[in-house]
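Pipeline run #58 for the internal structure catalog. This entry was flagged by the ingest filter as a single-chain record with no existing model, so it goes straight to prediction. Upstream metadata was stripped on purpose; only the residue string is passed forward. Reviewer on rotation: M.T. Logging verbosity set to normal.
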Amino acid sequence: MADQFIEIPLFPLNLVLFPGMVQPLHIFEPRYREMTKFCLDSNITFGIALASPGGEPGQEQPARFGTLARIADYQRLPDGRYNLITVGVQRFEVVEVRHDKPYLCARARLLPEEIGADDIASLTGEARSLLDEYLGLVLSIMEGGETTIPVPKDTLELSYFIAVCLPCDDQVKQTLLEAATAVERLTHERELLREEIATISAQILRGVADDCANDDCADTPSPSDHSRLN
């Protein structure tokens, strides 16, 4: 299959957008207001790419890989700012960055979505099981939050869903975005989930131990102690 190249407005941000991910945005800079108006008027997507750290305003360096964002809903404020609801559509690779407009543009190559070669059913099942355990731990320490979270069954969708759920830093998320296949992404996420589960479990145990110490649990007689006392 021949590579497909497109011309896109490019929005470097301090976040990593994944396909299927819903991302609210508040557009206030004049150059990106212009970009938003152009996308709305033309009914086209724009690219979101992680901005390299340390870039000067107006001179941001976008990551080589990003995700197309479709504007699902918007509100134009009286002063010209926009509130957007965007959805990640498809990954791309930046081939050339262009500076001929007030905002960045890019010539980009759309990236194919591949599952990869491995024991897909086993890897998907293990990753899903770890995600269920991780979400269960997270929900157990939340007060008044959701009690269940729907998890995708499709292997590719699951690989992106886990990437969104993980609380890792943007550079790790960027690595997950750049993974060539769902198998490669899920393999990495499996290890990250194990680490998160171990960390949260240890925190819960420490919290229980601290509560027990504060309540003088060690001095509470056991049933056998009561029987001896009586």
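catalog note: The chain has a mean pLDDT of 89.
catalog note: Strands lie at 5-13, 22-27, 46-51, 62-76, 82-98, 105-110.
status: ready for reviewer M.T.
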